[in-house]
Structure formats: structure tokens, C-alpha cells
Amino acid sequence: MTSRRTRLLAGVVAAVAAIVALLMTGLGRDPSVFASPLVGRAAPNFTLPQLDGPPVTLAKLRGQVVVINFWASWCTECQVEQAALDQTWQQFQDSGVVVLGVDFQDAIGAARSYVRTDGLTYPVVEDAGSKTALAYGLRGVPETFVVNRYGRIVKHVIGPVGATALASEINSMLGTRAQ
Amino acid sequence: MNAAGTLRGARASLPGLLVVAALAAGLATLAIVAVSGHPPPSQAQRVQQIAAGLHCPICKDLSVADSPAPLAQQMRQEIAQEIRAGESAAQIRAGFVAAYGDSVLMSPPRQGVTAAVYYLPVLVLAAGLITAFLLLRRWLRPPQPDPLGAGPPPLSASQRRAVARAVAQLGEEEPE
Amino acid sequence: MSQLGTYLLLFGLAVSGYGLVAAAVGAKTGRPALVESARRCAFGLFATMAAACATMLAALLTNDFAIRYVADNSARETPTFFKALSLWAADDGSLLLWNLILAGYIAAVALRFRRDRPPMFPYALSVLFGVQVFYLVLINGPARPFASLANPPADGRGPAPLLQNHPLMAVHPPFLYLGFIGFTVPFAFGVAALLAGQGSDQWVSVIRRWTLVVWCFLTVGLVLGALWSYSVLGWGGYWAWDPVENVALLPWLMSTAFLHSVMLQERRGMARLWNIALVIGAFALMTFGTFLTRGNVLSSVHAFAQTSVGPAYLAFLALVLLAGFGLVAWRLPELRAPANLTSAISREGAFVANNVLLLAATAIILLGTIFPLVVEALSGQQVTVGGPYFRSSVAPVFLLILLLAGTAPLLPWRATNRSRALRRLRVPAAAAAAVMIAAAWAGVHQVAAVAGFGLATLVFVTSGQEILSGLAIGRRGTRGGAVRALARGRRRHAGLVVHMGLALVAAGIIASSSLAQQAQVTLTTGQSTVFAGQKLRYQGLHAQREPQRIVFTTTVAVMNPGGGAAGTLDPRMNLYPAATAPIGSPSIRRGIVWDLYASVISLQDNGGSATFRFYHNPGVNWLWFGGLVMALGGAAAAWPARRRRGPGDDHGTSALRRRTAVEVGAR
């Protein structure tokens, strides 16, 4: 009966190997990271009021590169990327690029004072009711979407975004070399 | 057959009749409940139903219906607005899937690779039942006669009595 | 203190390493002195682990922030009670508790077998030490709780807010760990039996009793976890089908299957190999559960976020599977005993059905839990398998299990006398039908719920009837009456009590899943709303500053329909500095039939208005009570019988059978 034993043992080894292989794939990935289905698709349109100013409609920005950054005044991680976003705005605002901040689940007073103290220069709109956030599949803040001139989302960043990464992405879309 | 015998026969089958009657009553009740349906859901209940099928994106395991998180609240409001606007449940779900991906559904989509999960329970039960059937059949087969012809030595009368006593005592502890 | 702890853990590793080798070598070369020295090491190991835990506790209580674990999980203003609880709040610390409990079990085994031992005891001891070696390597390697910080901070981060909100945090992990880790003992004896080549029935009674005790702990641990989820998390439910919750349930299901099929082996000598496989499977599932919880593989509310230990757990799991099932495959030809069965409608057939159903439930839950992983590995698609899937796929199996539990106790061994069995089924069947009709009349409109109530009644009445008739028979036959009768049929009666507990749990689950109501409403101060037949009025907000948090307490007055005041609910929102969002604490008015549950989810205008979620939850208290009954019944079944002096005595075989064998053999 030794051959039967060997076959059984081989079966056990094969099964265990398959299980281990499967579980190893699980080890390689971060379970809290979700792939966004929006990359490559048309950016959902919205019309939102600015904190102080007329409403902004995304569709009207067609022809320009738009960097949509979801943030909130209570979000500590958002402060990390603040300088990067300001820098991007300063660098590219005359090249057909718009940096747009979208305030998420925030009190308008807190948002205004944040803008004042941090010296935000780019336009900021408020998403009361989070309709736009839901349309963009937002799971938290900060999240940044880069929309190209034809209204397609080309990049989705979860977490604070870096200045160089943004700059290189924008440059490749504008067809200019990094400066 | 005399009257006493008929009575005995009837009484013997009475428990069986009772059990069958109870079973029939139970099944009939279930049938009535199944057929009678329930009142059409209110708006709030419809929101609940759809929200229960969506996974709150920032919670680890709660549905949008159960989660107290602000994002889940806003999703519920969104669902309510969309119901008022006349969208169907499928359309509302599709809208969320477009933004969040398939993982926002509480159960995998029924098309494609993921449909396999819905066949799993049936396959598992079937496998179990087949295994049990094969096992019971093997156990039910009468044991092979001893090829050497010599089995265990027969019991003496006193041994048989001892066994009978012991079995009787065992039988008292539980139904025999 | 960091040094002391580290050295204690290293010493523990050395001791368990010695025990592993000494027991194995002693068994192989037939040197009992070596085995005895390994046995004694178990006590030293336990003392060392206790000292290490005490060191960590001291570090927590004295705010020794030089230790990274203390800095990450405790703070100066944390209340002392929760500082002590931080010992097992996070990954590394809970690993300390794990090692302590495992060492405790090994010491208990060493103590229990200080005199008479089954022949495979040395191998079992070796396997136990081997498992301890793995966990000690982890705690001395990738997951060191006593790692120190070069620049200790002035104050620690404090425990995760959710973990310091409620005292139930004190008891849920220890009971759960006592349940999980305990499966190591039956596993060790099972592997030892396979190694020693002894397929005999000697190991069965040892393993059965240990598994039963572990099962009791695990039952309590799971019920406490559900109770914590219900009372603390504020979402109105008690089981979210979270991956970690699911994998905790799997060893429980498998060990329940074992506790039933082991009776096949005890009574009829059948299913020997199957029982060993179940015991190994329970331990493997537990190890898999540990891997899933601590290896950061699936997203879960319980997940500890350590990535470096994942590969270690996976390797250990692979080893356990290979060794365990490899040995089963190796011994397969020898352990197959021919069995014969007179009729499938018998206790034996019922136990087969029991195992099929419980293992089907295990497989469905296991496969559903890892399905997202499989799909992502194969196609990159990310999906969720959540509560609705598990509920709808497990419910039919659960109902079938109830049906079996309600009828199987009426089936005798070998063959059934049909009219006798039907006669005993009269009252339970009638009661079940009556309950179903009543439920339908009362307006329950889910078919599964009506069926479930009927089946739960069937189980309850069958078990009760069998206990009563057992008492009656016993009273007639023995001197001493009912109590002696209870004691003689103790295992059977205790098992029936567990079934009654199961019926209560089932009724609770069905009632709370199908009849619960909820509503979300925003009230301004003084405004009231009607919910589930009671008037609820928001009375106001009260804020209180505590050292580690700010607590906002809202008061809701509850009034009966007649107008009389019924009481108040005071759900809270707790603001912890470490958390970005407030943690809610629900307020529950518990009742025998239903709970009124309130949770405040947001405040507006400084408490001028508040958004509440109210829940009407019928049957949840039957769940907690039923769980307690199940655990007590299990404990009663595990209680050691009064020991009789006799040859080859205390391996648990019925005194009667032994006497019979002796009597018959002597003639």
C-alpha cells in the first residue's frame, strides 16, 4: 500500500502548496488600498459654490488641466500637502492649469479661517452634502484627482500629494519639459 | 380482528399521525406566510434596503445602512434623493459602483468570475451529502464473513446473562 | 524594565526549546528521565511567562515610555484600569498574553499527567513546546513588545479610543485566547497519537475532555465579543461578518462537530481517523485565523497592522497543515477500522448528518471569507463578501442543524423503533407547530424566521423532554432519586442543556435579525418623536471633560404610550485627542423581550439639535443568556466524574462498560 500512501502524501503537499501560494498573494498587497475605477474615465461634472466667490462648474474648465484636491480643515494629513499645492498653483496657473480645492464635510467658518491662516491662493469650493465627493468615490481626505484638458481623469492620488509628482504629471500633459 | 386489536393498532399509529399533523400544520403556515407577502416598503425602508446592500467605504465591515459614519449618512441622503428622483435600485447601485468600484457592493456582482461564490454553498452541501451517503452505504454493508472460519468463542449462558443485564442497565440511561 | 522583559522572553525561548528536544528525544530513545525533565520545564516556562507579563504590566502602570509598546498604547491620563488592559490591546502585547496562556496550558497538561500518562504523552509534550517555540520566536524577533525607544517621549499616545471605551475589553480577549490557544492541546495529542502509531481509543477521552473545556471558553469568548460589539460599537448589531469574526467562528464549528463525532468513536469505535482529522483541522483553522488577523491580509476592524509577522504565520500554518494532514495521510491505512451500521436512521446516522452540516457551514464561511483574496489574485478585481451573503447562505444550514438537534436525541444507537421515536416527537412537534402558527399570526412575514422559531422550539422542547424523562427513569431505577439520576446521565443531560442554550441563541438571532426596527431622526431640544410605540424626547446635552477625553452626553426621555415616564437613554459621544472622529457610546434599555437602543451620531448647534439612531431589538438578551447556558452545559459535561479505583482507570470509559468487560471476561 506504499504507493497509495505516497499518492495521498503528494496530494496533501500539493493542497498545502496551493493554499500557501494563494495566501502569499494576500501578503503582498495593502488591504486598505482600493483601485479607483474612475481613472481613464470622464470626470463627473459638478457646480459648487466657492467659499467666497461665484460658483465653479467643472465642465466650464474644459481645455485646461484641472487638479481637484479634496481636503478638510480638520484633516491633519492635508496640511502636509498644502505647500505642494500652493507651489503647483503658483507655477502653472498661467499655463492653463487650475488647482481647485474641494472642502469635504467641513464647517464653512472653519474652512474660511483655514484658508486665511494658511494663505491658500487657489480657488476653493464647498461640497455640502458630499454629493461630489460621492461621485468621485471619496473614501477620506486628502485625495487628489488630475483631470486632463479633455475632461478625463488621468491620475488619482490617495493621501498627501507631492509637488514633484504633480509637476511631472502636469508637464507631461502640457507637452513641456520639466523646469 | 377484534375491537381491542383495532384500538391497539389505532393507538400505535396515533403518535405518527400527530407528528404528521404537526408537520403539515407547520408547512401550511410557512406556505401561507410565503404567499401572503408584505406591505410595500416605505421610502425610508427602501433607502434601508438599498443601503444594506452597499458597503460603507470607510468602515471595515459595516453596510451603509448600519454605519454611523458621516460619509455613510451622506450616502443614505444621496440614495433618498435618487429614489425621489425616480431612479431604480439597480441604477442607484450602478452609480455607486461607477465611483467606488465593485467593492462598494456588499455582495459580489452576479456576473463574471465572482458569480462562483453564489454556487459555493450548494456545491459544498452537495459534496457533503454525497460523502455522507457513500460513507453510510459502506458502513451499512454487512461485515465480510471470517475467511478462516473461526470467530470469537461463543458466550456461555452465564456470560450471556451478564451481557443482558449490562445492556438493560445501559438502556436505562438513554432511549434504546 | 525593557532589559528584564527581553531576557525573560529569551529565557522562555530557551526553556521551551529544551522541552521540545528533551521530550522528543526521551520518547524516541526511551529515556523517561528526559521526558520528566521536559515536563518539569513546563512549570518553569509558565513562571517565566508570568514574570514577563508582570514586567509589562509594571511598565504600563509606571508609565515607562522608554518601552515603545507602552509609548504607543498608554498615556499618563489613561485610567489605571485601561492602562492594565493595554497589556493585550495591541499586537505585541497581546502576543505576550498569548504566550502566557499557551504556557499555562502546557503547565496544566504537565500537572494533569504527573502520574499516569498515555503512551504518547512525550510526543504531545514535544509538540506543545514546539508551538510555544514558534510564538516565542515571534515575540523575540519581528514582534518584540519590549523594544525600547532611543528618545522616550514625555507622554504616550494612549490606547486606541475604541479599546478604552468599555470594560468588556477586559474579558473578551482573555476568554477568546483561552478558547483559541486551547486547541493546541488536542492537536498535540492528536499528532502524538499519529506519531506513536497508536490508533487506539486511549487518546479519545483525554482529547474529548480538553476540547470540551476549550470549547466552553471559546463559546464565552465569542459571546462576549458579540456583546462588546453590540454594547460598545453603537451600530445596533452584534455580528458584522467581519473576516476576523468569521475565522473565530470556524474552530468553534469544527470542534462542535468533533464533540459529536467523538461519541461515534467512544461508543462504536468508528470514525477514529476522522476525529483526529477534525482536531487537527480545528487547530489549523485557528492558526489560519491568527494569520488572517495579524498578517494584514484582509481589511478588518480587528486587524493589527503588522506586516512583518505575516510571512512567519504563513510558514507556521504551512508547517501545521503539512505535519498534521501529512501524518493523517501516512496513517490512513492503519487507522481505518471496519464499521458496521444497522440503520442510517440512528444516532450514528444523526452524528454523520451533524458533521456534514457543521462542516458545510465551516466551508461556506471559510470560502466566503477568502473569496475576495482569491478573486483579486486571479483577476485583480476587488470585491466584498459581506453580511448579506453569509446570512443567506448559512441560514439554511443553520435551520437544518436546528432540525437535527431537535430530533436526533430521540434516536437510539444502531436502530430506531419508529413508533417509539414518533411518540417522543409528539409534544415537541406540536409545540413547534403552535409557535409557528403564533408567529405567523403575530405578523412575522419572513418564511425563514417563522420556520426558525418553530425549529428552535422543537430543539428546546425535545431537549427539555428528554432531560425530564431521563430524570423520571433514573428516579425509578436508582436509589437517591433525581439528583443521582442526573449525575449518572450527566454527559447526556449536560449535552441536552447545551442544546437548550442553542435553542435560545437561535431564537435570539432569528428575532433580532428579522424583527428589529430602526430609525434615524434629528431632534431639537425638547422635540419628541414616536418610535416602536414609545415617545422619545431629546432633553439636552451635557459636556464633561475627563483626563483622557471629552464626553458629550445627550439625554433622551422615554415615555410609554399611556403617558407614564419609562426612563431615560443617554447616548454619548466621546472626543479623544488621538481620534479624528468622535467615538459614540450607545445607551441601551435592556428588557427580557426587547431592547431599546439609542446612539447619537452627530450634534449640531452646540447640542441644540442632535441626530439619533434608535433601534428596537427583540431577542438579543436571549442570545447572551443562551450563550451562558451553552457554556455552563459544556462545563457540566466536562466536569470530571468521581474517580473509581481500578485497572487502567481514568481514561473516561463508562464505568458500566468496564465492569461488564471485567465480568464477562472473568467467566
The number of distinct β-strands of chain A equals 7
CATH class of the largest domain in chain A: Alpha Beta
Quaternary state of the chains: heterotrimer
Total helical elements of chain A: 5
> CATH topology of the largest domain in chain A, which one?
Glutaredoxin
Strand arrangement in the largest pleated sheet of chain A: 5-4-3-6-7
Structural class of chain A: alpha/beta
Specify the structural class of chain C.
Answer: alpha+beta
Separate helix tally of chain C: 20
Q: Which overall shape of chain C is indicated by the principal axes computed on the Cα atoms?
A: globular
Poorly predicted regions of chain C are 644-667
Give the strand tally of chain C.
Answer: 10
Question: What is the arithmetic mean of pLDDT of chain A?
Answer: 87
Largest beta sheet of chain C, briefly?
Answer: 6 strands, antiparallel
Shape of chain A: elongated
- Counting structural domains of chain C, the number is 4
Instruction: Return the domain count of chain A.
Output: 2
